[in-house]
Amino acid sequence: MARNPERRAALLDAAIEVLADEGARGLTFRAVDARAGVPTGTSSNYFNDRDQLLSQVGDRIFVRLTPAPDALETAMLPTPGRQLVLELMRWVARRLAAERTCYLGLFELRLEAVRRPELRTQLTKVLRSDLDENIRGHLAAGMPGDADTVRLLYFALTGLLLDHFTVPGLHGDRDLDDLIETVVARIVPEA
Does Electron transport count among this protein's keywords (predicted)? Predict the structure, then answer.
């Protein structure tokens, strides 16, 4: 199996684009090679099979979506409260919008996980770890609310972003920031 980490990352990034644009059914080695602009057969030198490709695409998505530690520390500097939760939710939404392809790829992986138990196990583990870390961070920072507050914010933002990326006109003239403000006001208790 080939070991060039830069080439592997480029192939995984190409696979994310294919996944976001064509769905899981369109994710083939040939499609990844074409998107990456490499000779046919290159990706099969890096991944044993489609399951391994899907698994590593999931890992790559989470690498790309994870903020740098210093960015998160900076975002958490203001005084804990509902306003900070609002700003953090908007910050997360902007970051995910900037990585729209990754986020759409993640939606596709979630759908594919319905049919692939191994992928479902991996996604569950990673998503649970991320959610647990968000809950821990929220509580440790002294933010208003409890673990269920964080879960509800997670559900709301996931749904809002799904709508925003797939059916942007669904909420009429309400923009994403406005919807996020409504969500935070209804879910997060006053400090």
Answer: no
Spatial neighbors of 121 by CB under 8 A, at least 6 apart, are none
User: Three-class SS string for 36-98?
Assistant: HCCCCCHHHHHCCCHHHHHHHHHHHHHHHHCCCHHHHHHHCCCCCCHHHHHHHHHHHHHHHHH
**Type of residue at 32:** V
Residue 145 DSSP one-character state:
S
Per-residue pLDDT tens digits of the chain, which is 191 residues long? 668 999 999 999 999 999 999 999 999 999 999 999 999 999 999 999 999 999 999 999 999 999 888 888 888 888 999 999 999 999 999 999 999 999 999 999 999 999 999 999 999 999 999 999 999 999 999 999 999 999 999 999 999 999 999 998 999 989 999 999 999 999 999 87
The closest of 128, 5, 98, 117 to 54, measured between CA atoms, is 117
